[in-house]
Amino acid sequence: MTQTFAERRWTSPDGLSLFARDYAAAAGPAKLPVIAIHGLTRNSADFGAIAPLIAQSGRRVLAVDVRGRGLSDRAPDPMTYQPLNYAQDVLALMEQAGIARAVFLGTSMGGLITMALTALRSKVVAAAILNDIGPEVAKEGLARIAAYSGQPVDTPGWAEAAAYVKSINAVAFPHYTDADWDAFARRTFRIGTEGSPVLDYDPDIAVPIRAAGAKALVPNLWPMFGRLAKARPVLLVRGQNSDLLSEAIAAKMQKRAPKMDYVEVPGVGHAPMLDEPEAKAAIFPFLGELP
């Protein structure tokens, strides 16, 4: 099932033209919109399955392309590829779209951006769904992601692009078919100027990660998470086989935030696509309780 979306553009505080997919809410009483934010090397297409379902349930969904990804401008200064800048970009979107408060759906880095938003302007975050991310991450998973981020790939055709995404994501989706990997490639690559698929992000997004070195592998965001979970509803979604959000970190989060909702998606790693039955069975009741 697909639903058309409007193409929305907004301007970042430093003048970049940024893009979002804008899914209109189904008719009914007005509800808080959902702002969906993707992971490090991904884009708004990752929400292509869940966003239309949320919109059908009566909430407008804005799925953003973070700066340097998808249809958003690439930043002249790669050191602006950091969660605090991304969060300020989202605040600019809210201001330009006339949105005072929203529910945030953040996958991986998108969850870190959500926590940064809570630190910057707490009132705009009405509730949060954190998809396979916490205030602390397992070093193994982050090292795996850092190893391929921004690295050149040789993909003369879609078959090679599908083989590439399979090579770095098969651990997370062992049940995927060839058709699934082809669809995955078409979400994460675009046709480049040479006529062959290229990764749909600026390789320079990895510059701040390399600059931070080992410090980047163990960010301490517990104070931000505490602030997020203390004052508003939070749902944590974890892939059962995740190498980024370990069982131990998830358990620590539950201990710190006993009211937080939690669901584990069986058979997948980092990060669930949120079209899994278990994910949807947690997300829609959670949203149903919100204004």
Explain how this protein is built.
Helix 1 links the parallel strand 3 and strand 4. Helices cover 36% and strands 18% of the residues. It has helices at residues 50-56, 83-97, 109-120, 139-148, 158-169, 178-188, 207-212, 222-231, 247-256, 277-288; strands at residues 6-11, 17-23, 34-37, 61-65, 102-107, 125-131, 189-191, 197-199, 234-239, 261-265. It contains 10 helices and 10 strands. The protein is α/β, with parallel strands linked by helices and 291 residues long. The model has no long low-confidence stretch (mean pLDDT 94). The chain has an 8-stranded mixed beta sheet with strand order 1-2-4-3-5-6-9-10, with helices on both faces. A two-stranded antiparallel ribbon has the order 7-8.
Q: How much is the radius of gyration in Å?
A: 18 Å
Q: How many strands appear in the DSSP assignment?
A: 10
Mean pLDDT: 94
**What oligomerization state is this entry in?**
single chain
- The end-to-end distance, rounded to whole angstroms, is 26 Å
Strand line-up across the major sheet: 1-2-4-3-5-6-9-10
* Helical fraction: 25-40%
Number of helices: 10
Strand content: 15-25%
The secondary structure category is alpha/beta
Low-pLDDT parts are: none
Strand/helix succession: EEEHEHEHEHHHEEHHEHEH
Basic shape:
globular
Give the biggest sheet.
8 strands, mixed
